[in-house]
Amino acid sequence: MAKRERVPAIPPVTAVDELSTIKEVLLLQLLLTVFDRDAKIIAESKLKTKQPYVDLIERAMDGVTKDLAKLRNRLREHGIKITDEQRDDQGVGCVYWCRGYKASFEMLWHFVKAETEIRMRKYLGEDIRKYVRTDLPEHLKPEWLLQPAPNVLAGQPPAGAPGASNQEQTANSPAVQPPSSQNFA
């Protein structure tokens, strides 16, 4: 009897959506660090009404934390573990294990800065559709990024976002609504 070759059920290659999830985890961890630093700077400043700013940043941090938990669960479900995050003069990266295979992922600082600023705007409640390219193929569109951040402004969606009042949507938003059918969780 001939030996049958064993074929793995899950390929040992990291898929594009899994790399995208790793990228989001790194960016959101960095964003939490930025928000925390900014909240401390504002709290220690000489502003007379600093508490509303600190509260806004703390609500944004809550939204980032919720999304980060969903992303980490997704990594766990796919058998991926980030073991070492590095930040140096060149950029941000990590070493991760994907179904028993070790790999690395890196992003340059100029890319990290631009992507983090977009996410910062999202979690602070700004409509970010103007920052996202519309000419991308369907499988590359960051649909979850276009959805309103959780817990923004104590549960109120940003003006122009799905769920905002009809008067605000017609006055402040373009005709194209962000896709809401796909979620990253």
Describe what you observe in this structure:
By secondary structure, the protein is of the alpha+beta class. The chain has one domain. The chain contains 5 helices and 3 strands; from the N terminus they run ααβββααα. It has helices at residues 16-43, 51-77, 109-123, 143-146, 166-172, and strands spanning 80-87, 91-98, 101-108. A 3-stranded antiparallel sheet has the order 1-2-3. The longest helix is centred in the first third of the chain and has 28 residues, at 16-43. The termini are far apart. The model is unreliable at 153-185 (pLDDT under 50).
First-to-last CA distance = 45 Å
Shape field = globular
- Estimate the helix proportion, in percent: 40-55%
Number of strands: 3
Report the average pLDDT across residues.
Answer: 79
Oligomer: single chain
Q: Strand fraction band?
A: 5-15%
Alpha-beta classification: alpha+beta
Q: What is the topology, as strand order, of the major beta sheet?
A: 1-2-3
Strand/helix succession: HHEEEHHH
| Rg value | 19 Å
How many individual helices? 5
Domain unit count: 1
Strand count, sense and barrel status of the largest sheet are: 3 strands, antiparallel
Unreliable stretches covering 5 or more consecutive residues: 153-185
Summary of the model, kept short:
With 185 residues, the protein is of the alpha+beta class. It is 44% helix and 13% strand. The chain has helices at residues 16-43, 51-77, 109-123, 143-146, 166-172, and strands spanning 80-87, 91-98, 101-108.
Write the layout of secondary structure elements.
Blueprint: H1 16-43, H2 51-77, E1 80-87, E2 91-98, E3 101-108, H3 109-123, H4 143-146, H5 166-172
Antiparallel strand pairs: 1-2, 2-3
Helix pairs in contact: 1-2, 1-3
